[in-house]
Amino acid sequence: MHMNNKMLLSTYSEVYVIDCTTLMYLQAEDHYTHLYTAHGGHMLLPFALSQVVGALAEPVHQGLRLYRMGRRSFNGNLLIVC
């Protein structure tokens, strides 16, 4: 589900709100994803990196440019990192 530049990811008991405009990079750790923002924020998501990247690849996030850094464990937002 999406609200403007925010994305909602949910489990059975929790909802995670991600502000896509401040997303800096994602890091995989087993079946979890660490999310880091441009403002120094950090969130541990109970989703695999492929699930989070797949949700961010939906057409509503056309301005978001993710770039895979390394073999499998990092994805960065080129609009913020560069």
Features of this protein?
single chain, mainly beta, OB fold (Dihydrolipoamide Acetyltransferase, E2P), 3-stranded antiparallel sheet, 15% helix, globular, disordered C terminus
Describe the overall structure.
The protein is mostly beta strands. It has one domain: OB fold (Dihydrolipoamide Acetyltransferase, E2P), CATH 2.40.50. The protein is built from two helices and eight strands. It is globular, with a radius of gyration of 12 Å. The C terminus is likely disordered.
Q: In the CATH scheme, what's the topology name?
A: OB fold (Dihydrolipoamide Acetyltransferase, E2P)
Using only C-alpha atoms, the radius of gyration works out to: 12 Å
Unreliable stretches, pLDDT < 50, 5 or more residues?
Answer: 78-82
The mean pLDDT is: 76
What structural class do the secondary elements suggest?
A: mainly beta
- What is the first-to-last residue Cα distance? 28 Å
Total DSSP helices: 2
Q: Describe the strand arrangement of the main beta sheet, using strand numbers.
A: 6-5-4-8-7
CATH A-level architecture: Beta Barrel
Number of strands: 8
Largest sheet: 5 strands, antiparallel
* Large-scale geometry: globular
CATH superfamily: LytTr DNA-binding domain
Query: How many domains make up the 3D coordinates?
Result: 1
H and E string: EEEEEEHEEH
* Range of strand content: over 45%
CATH top level label: Mainly Beta
Q: Helix content range of the residues, please? A: 10-25%
Write the layout of secondary structure elements.
Elements: E1 2-3, E2 6-10, E3 15-19, E4 23-29, E5 32-37, E6 42-45, H1 49-56, E7 66-69, E8 74-77, H2 78-81
Antiparallel strand pairs: 1-2, 2-3, 4-5, 4-8, 5-6, 7-8
